[in-house]
Amino acid sequence: MPIDTHPRRSLLSEPLLKARSITKSYAGVQALKGASLELLRGEVHALVGENGAGKSTLTKVITGAITADSGTLEVCGQQVARNDPSISRSLGIAAVYQQPSLFPHLTVAENIALALEGDGSSWTVDWKSRYARAKELIERVGASIDPRRPAGSLTMAEQQIVEIAKMLGAKARIFLMDEPTALLTDREVDNLFQLIGRLRDEGAGILYISHRLEEILSIADRITVLRDGEVIACRDAAEVDRSELIHLMVGRSIRSIFPKREVPIGDIALEVRNLRNGSVGLKDISFSVRRGEIFGLAGLVGSGRTELARTLFGLTPSDSTILLGGKPTRIGSPTEAIRRGIGYVPEDRRQHGVILEMGVAFNISLANLQSVSKWGLINRDKEDDLAKLYVDEMRIKTASVSGVAGTLSGGNQQKVALARWMAIHPRIMILDEPTQGVDVGSKSEIHDLVMQMAERGVAILLISSELPEILGMSDRIGVMHAGRMMGILSRQAATQSSIMTMAFGHACSGV
Ligand SMILES: Nc1ncnc2c1ncn2[C@@H]1O[C@H](COP(=O)(O)OP(=O)(O)OP(=O)(O)O)[C@@H](O)[C@H]1O
Ligand SMILES: [Mg+2]
Predict the structure, then answer these.
(1) What is the mean pLDDT of residues 399-408?
(2) Are both 401 and 478 inside the same structural domain?
(3) Which atom of ligand 1 is closest in space to residue 412's alpha carbon?
(4) Is the domain of 333 the same as that of 376?
(5) 15 Cβ below 6 A of ligand 1
(6) I want to staple 344 with a disulfide (CB 3.0 to 4.6 A). Which of 199, 227, 376, 430 is the partner?
(7) pLDDT exceeds cutoff 50 at 507
């Protein structure tokens, strides 16, 4: 074991994890160029950087999901000669994902039992003690979830908590969290932070990746900044502020985060009157969006915002009629929606936004095949030209326009999803969490693009869970709760608390 000469550290604070000079190349891209990082006991260590900086790649090297080209890993002073997911798990490394991987039809206790006994070891446990153990682990993470509930009936946040409890049961000490709060409501984020605090107090180390700088500054002890695969800085969180952090991340100064500009508001482009959709729980929704207007849609996760977007785009058609440019219309399918000038960037870009197996150029031209094809044949050069235009304009980080979309970093995939719709000049654009998982620099670029669309007269429906974004960008804000529109606020009248009050509305049931 190497002797630690750092004066402030006792032997006990031998780092839990040391990653040294890690390099990793993919075809054409060097994702990590000799990155090093130390995770201490009882520390929340944030890893920040622009989209494509290499954050996820570094965590994947640590979990053994991918193999580094060079560099070393040490856990508690011991070099890890070979790594793969099961070795890394046995070393106490646990990865917490946005979307937990519990078996939905099994109960919480069964899920935990499966993880802890799943190696087929001979000791058997009766159900009573399985429940007792599950209960104890859940209490240890400070939650109160009935272990008898099927995992599928839990909210995403509850599942995440069970996942962490499960990992604690498996004696994990190193927790890697890659954007764990992306799908959580504010209240759920608070719960997760309390839990992270407990893990830290128990001596665990938490590597925490997020694009939400406020979160980082409030929870992290130290912050490592990655830029283009290199570690640019490692600082005590108490010693940096937001603007310095941004500067370290992007290496350039950024324009204002919300570039809201005055745009002349035109005629009503979309009007929804008493829209209902029983199959997805939407009730009696009425609102309208004018040309050039940004209509923000706020509400808690599960309040029906995404369901409304999917209904308007024809993915979950309803019998209700909507008015487009004053004309009553029924949207029965996405094809029809696109034909009528409605564009949609979904929240879950992995499911509906970007076709991960296909190239960037293909993805960008997808909604706009007429412009790049003739007599039904796609002209690849035209397709590439169109894509290059947007790759440049939106600073999409990809080795080439023929690069496979699935290999782009999360934030860059999101830009591809947006570029596709920019290319067809829709009349109405529905954006569901367009800056989720997007770094600060790209975020202000995306906000600017949204403004440009508005300036071209596009009516925009902007769904976002980030209140500063909703408040910063919207002309009016509709607040949803349990499938209903609770009310509509003007830009002037809206505040964080007025929105939250409405979002919780008659909120005691359910969520
Ligand atoms: N399987 C792969 N094939 C090719 N290139 C890849 C692959 N995985 C990642 N990359 C590239 O490596 C670089 C780093 O990606 P990584 O996913 O680590 O970024 P990130 O910092 O997590 O970004 P984000 O904040 O957007 O999630 C990116 O340029 C990405 O395109
Ligand atoms: Mg990532």
Answers:
(1) 85
(2) no
(3) 26
(4) no
(5) no
(6) 430
(7) no
Q: Please report whether residue 464 resides in a domain.
A: yes
Atom number in ligand 1 closest to CA 413: 26
Q: Which residue puts its alpha carbon closest to atom 9 of ligand 1?
A: 407
53 C-alpha to ligand 2 centroid (Å): 8
Q: What is the mean pLDDT of residues 398-408?
A: 85
| Count of structural domains, the chain | 3
Q: How far apart are CA 136 and CA 134, in angstroms?
A: 5
Compute and round to an integer the Cα radius of gyration of the chain: 24
Q: What pLDDT score was predicted for residue 199? A: 93
Q: Which residue has the higher pLDDT, 120 or 482?
A: 482
- 57 C-beta closer than 6 A to ligand 1: yes
441 CB less than 6 Å from ligand 1?
A: no
> Distance from the CA of 138 to the center of ligand 2, in angstroms?
28
Nearest Cα to Cα of residue 73 among 101, 37, 110: 37
CB 223 within 8 A of CB 48: yes
In a domain? residue 346: no
Ligand 1 contact, 56 CB (< 6 A): yes
**pTM of this prediction?**
0.73
Report the residue among 409, 435, 438 best suited for mutation to probe ligand 1: largest number of ligand atoms under 8 A from its CB.
Answer: 409
Ligand 1 atom with least separation from CA of 24: 12
pLDDT at residue 1, as a whole number: 42
328 and 287 co-located in one domain:
yes
- Per-residue H/E/C for 180-207: CCCCCCHHHHHHHHHHHHHHHHCCCEEE
pLDDT digits (tens, 9 = 90+) for 183-199: 777 778 888 899 999 99
Residue 257 has pLDDT above 90, yes or no: no
Are residues 31 and 143 part of one domain? Answer: yes
Domain holding 53, by residue range, is: 14-250
Q: How long a stretch of residues is the chain?
A: 511
- Give the closest residue (by CA) to ligand 1 atom 6: 407
Residue 62 lies in a domain: yes
Q: Which of 30-44, 241-255, 464-478 has the lowest mean pLDDT?
A: 241-255
55 lines ligand 1 (CB under 6 A): yes
What is d(CA 362, CA 391) in angstroms, rounded to the nearest whole number? 12
Asked if residue 399 and residue 320 are part of one domain, the reply reads no
Q: Is the CB of 52 under 6 A from ligand 1?
A: yes
Three-class SS of residue 268? strand
